[in-house]
Amino acid sequence: MLYARHQKNIRRSIVVLVCIGLISRLRQMIKLTTSERKPKDAKSGSRQKAQLDRQFFENMRRLVGIAIPGLLSKEFGMLVAHTVLLIFRTFLSVVVATLDGQIVSSLVRLQGREFLVGIAKWMGMAVPATLTNSLLGYVQTMLAIRFRQNLTEHVHAKYLANNTYYAVGNLDDRIKNADQLIAVDVAKFASSLAEIYSNLAKPTLDAFVYNVQLARSLGVESLFGIMVIIQASMGMLRVLTPPFGQLVAQEQRLEGDFYFAHSRLIENAEEIALYRGHEAEKRTISRRYMRLVRHVNRVFRLNVFYGMLEDFVVKYFWGAAGLVACAAPVFAERLPGAQRAVAAVQGASTFGDRTRDFITNRRLLLSGSDALGRMMYSYREIVELAGFAERVTELLTVLDDVNSGNYVKARVGKSAEKSLEADSGPDIISQRGQVIESADDVEFIKVPIVSPNGDVLVEQLSFHVTPGRHLLIVGPNGCGKSSMFRILGGLWPVYGGTLRKPSMSQIFYIPQRPYLPIGTLRDQIIYPDNASDMAQKGIVDAELLDILRVVQLETIVEREGGWDAVKPWRDALSGGDKQRIAMARLFYHRPQYAIMDECTSTVSMDVEKIMYTHATKLGITLLTVSHRQSLWQYHNYILQYDGQGGYMFSKLDPNRRIALMEEKQQIEQELALIRDMEARLGELESQSV
Questions:
Q1: How far apart are CA 562 and CA 566, in angstroms?
Q2: What predicted TM-score, i.e. pTM, was given to this entire model?
């Protein structure tokens, strides 16, 4: 026959075609990874959906470099061990397939001794097989834990440095749920990354080994025909595959919105309850939940269609093609690859050999089909991994930008209108001033007070405070008092001018509602120090008790169960106790400057007097925001905002200012009385006419 004469050339041509196909596929992948970036969304600056493109490979390269620090790392060693176990399991699969054929062959030959020996070998193979499978599961789980640990530590190093955690939520609009990204998305990415290696490496290795074995049994031609069918069906599946990467990324965003709605409800529960806003909040939460439910239902519907199609192709269509290839040598002697399956002699041995080869080839084909099926399933897992990778990479990108002082913040109000004007000049948000660390003074030199969304509260603020010059800051709401403190505290950037200030360790902030961390009673006093820091400073519990005695709170130690008592302190203490704890914290740290933001609003004037007097005795310079006239006597300078962008900085004479205020109030009362008398006079004149 023509085929028999040119069989070697035909096989060589098939091998060449396969090599050309592989090279072409590799070139396409290289071209994909080196092509230009996909266009980004103009408004958000991010891509519209997760895709298997160049950006995906860049994201993976960045994240894998964090998850696996180097070739000598523990993670890489675990990955090598995982690979060795995968290879060993594939070897066991080939041995089991061969042993399966031998057992069936001895059965049809009625050779009982060989059958029993085969069964014994089969049982002996169970020990290394089960051990290998258990070790693979263990190593994969440990890899996921190590990947998550490395990624979480890397994120924490960025997120908890330089007030980044504050800037992400207040100075930048790109991430609204950083907590979910860190606690949930990083974990899902780490688990998906560990799974995808096993789900890709094992099927790929299995497919290669099984195809080599099948090429020896069935011939290259039959195997090539099967591969053509498989490639055609895989191409069809790729065309019909839904965009799972985009769907996963969108689901995570909707989950984050739903989580954020609940966290916002918890954070503002008191205000919402007083407004009786539960119905309004319920509508908001329900809308976000229904958006999530609709999206999840849509994904499930797509999964039903795609799962049905994928199962039909992988399990049944490929299986039928493999069975035809296995049966071909039995029914047609001249078919490609039949020379090994058909013996030259007839008899029981020929029947047994055919049975053995059929069972072995069928087992290999089913295993190979299963491997290809897992490779197809892994494609969906890869696009889901792309969604997780995009979310985690977006988090890292925002953290890097924020750490570098680059913020993306939406403009509102007058700032938005001004930014749209063509001749509005340089954007003040993009400008930066100079921050100089001084020895012991605070000085603002033409520093604009600007909110993160671009609203200019004060165009240029200038004043100078030295140790002992206690400053009182007053003014209407929204005039820039708290904004100035945020700039002084390093929370907001300096958008112009020059700011001189001591190191942040010498500036202590006490808000109206003090923060109480998780920990012991001792931790509430020494925060942000811990017990080790306290010991290094040479301070003991008796000295802490003396501090509490100053703020008249020494009974709290016995009342709450001792210094090592751990409670939900935010709920266990009253508002006055919290403010006294905050003042005790100030006396413990003894900084050069203290920012007092309405921090004595819930304590009596007697306790307030003790607190301020003791702070001045300790040499702490006070920068106070308060409307209480009782605090004026502890300050000698005043910074007064007029609420229109202007301010006044001058010396403060408390007695004279109080006298002027009283005189002003008296004149206003008299003027009001005169207006009432004029109005009454007008009524009398109109009645007398």
A1: 9
A2: 0.68
